[in-house]
Amino acid sequence: MKKLIVLTLVGLFILAGCSSDNKKGTIVVGTTGQSYPNSYEKDGKLVGYDIEVFEKAAKKEGYKVKWVKADFSGIMGQLDSGRVDSVANAVAVTDERKEKYQFSNPYSYIGSQIVTSLNNKEINDFSDLKGKKVAGVMGSNHTEALEAFNKKNNYGISTKTYENRESAMLDLDNQRIDGYINSSSVLSAEKNKKDKKIKFVGKPINVEATSFPFKKDNKDKKKDIDKGIKALKDNGELKKLSNKYFGEDTTKK
């Protein structure tokens, strides 16, 4: 009888442990699945820096994550409509976005970097971009940074936008565009880990924090994810994840 009671109690503890990861229910998160190394697919599964950071932070606070995939402009629209709770896709914190969303604690810092094809011998510094066609992803902060940079310096750059990075990189490879702008750490990973034939043009034109955006009325989930991110920073996991995916520590400005 005593053995039966002990086994029953052990079983209850095991069940309690299994359910603790989901004690607060499900949090729905949007991502593109097309933003290596932040969010991409490997063997049919979503992986990447942003994916792991959000899942680990959510798990620490008792949430199960449900992922929803769409192009970048599409997932931000789903956040606006309330169909997702947040977005994990290297979303930069900008003044314009802060008027609309509340942001989690930063988990990374990114620079907006212009690159060109390694085979392009005409472009080596910013002055060579005058009158050239440079691309960015529609709705991204990097595209906005490019437009501000162009206006400030009067370079006469023609900006072309794409729904996703893959299409822009393909056109860059084939020299249908002269340049492309994205996160410096992302482009470094593309160059070093995927052997993309690109070269950097100058230094990043700006540096911004990346965070998980939430609608302003979704305060509880935002606070919980903040706690999870802090725990990842404090125990060193966040830095390890950054080095795993980028080959460098992007967690400090």
Going by CATH, the architecture of the largest domain would be 3-Layer(aba) Sandwich
Number of helices: 9
Shape: globular
CATH C-level class of the largest domain is Alpha Beta
Whole-number count of domains: 2
Mean of the pLDDT scores?
A: 90
Strand content: 15-25%
Listing every helix as H and every strand as E from the N terminus to the C terminus, the arrangement reads: HEEEEHEHEHEEEHEHEHEEEHH
**Helicity range of the residues?**
40-55%
Short description:
The chain has 253 residues and is an alpha/beta fold. It contains 9 helices and 14 strands.
Keywords:
40% helix, 3-stranded parallel β-sheet, 14 strands, D-Maltodextrin-Binding Protein, domain 2, 2 domains, 253 residues, signal, alpha/beta
Topology:
Layout: H1 2-19, E1 26-31, E2 34-35, E3 39-42, E4 45-47, H2 49-60, E5 64-69, H3 72-81, E6 86-87, H4 95-98, E7 101-103, E8 108-117, E9 133-137, H5 141-153, E10 158-162, H6 165-173, E11 179-183, H7 184-193, E12 198-201, E13 207-210, E14 213-215, H8 219-234, H9 237-246
Parallel strand pairs: 1-5, 1-6, 9-10, 9-11
Antiparallel strand pairs: 2-3, 3-4, 7-14, 8-11, 8-12, 8-13
Helix pairs in contact: 2-8
Verbal overview:
The protein has 253 residues and is α/β, with parallel strands linked by helices. It folds into 2 domains: 26-107 and 211-246, Periplasmic binding protein-like II (D-Maltodextrin-Binding Protein, domain 2, 3-Layer(aba) Sandwich), CATH 3.40.190.10; 111-208, Periplasmic binding protein-like II (D-Maltodextrin-Binding Protein, domain 2), CATH 3.40.190. The chain has helices at residues 2-19, 49-60, 72-81, 95-98, 141-153, 165-173, 184-193, 219-234, 237-246; strands at residues 26-31, 34-35, 39-42, 45-47, 64-69, 86-87, 101-103, 108-117, 133-137, 158-162, 179-183, 198-201, 207-210, 213-215. Strands 8, 9, 10, 11, 12 and 13 form a 6-stranded mixed beta sheet that branches. Strands 5-1-6 form a 3-stranded parallel beta sheet. β2 and β3 form a beta hairpin. α2 crosses α8. Residues 1-20 have low confidence and may be disordered. InterPro entries: Solute-binding_3/MltF_N. It comes from Staphylococcus gallinarum. This is Amino-acid-binding protein YxeM.
